[in-house]
Amino acid sequence: MAKAWRAVLVVALTLLFCAGSVVGDDHWWPFSPWRMFSTSQAATGSVWSTGIEVRTADAPDEWVHASLTPENVGVNRAEVEGRIPQIEADPARLGTLARSHARLRPDAPAWVGLRVVRHKIVVVDRVPTGEVETDVLAEWSQP
User: Fold this and answer.
1) Residues 27 and 54 placed together within one structural domain of the fold
2) Which of 1, 72, 98, 116 could form a disulfide with 137 if both were Cys (CB 3.0 to 4.6 A apart)?
3) What parts of the chain have a pLDDT lower than 70?
């Protein structure tokens, strides 16, 4: 009896993995490959990169790139990217990143403005052309 259950389980799992590989998507995981690992970008097109830019108390009129890392703002880039719709709807949420940065880096200049940007990098034959388009998705300034 135990061998029969094992055989049924192996057949069921095999069918799930095969079906997931043919028609599944990320929601079928672990029975399908994650799209990000099972597909590739076109050789010519564009690649998107999300990041943050800040204005500091030392240079309040200049936007500069800041790293979107746990060491700098307390969260990973993916955590911010996953909340883009909420951040766009309520840019004041970006103030949380500025406050987190102040706690994590008390000796660094205070952030008086922060914005989430998405860079579109143009690629031809898998080589960046140097052309970059930047869209500001949300912007916060210290009141």
Assistant:
1) no
2) 116
3) 34-39
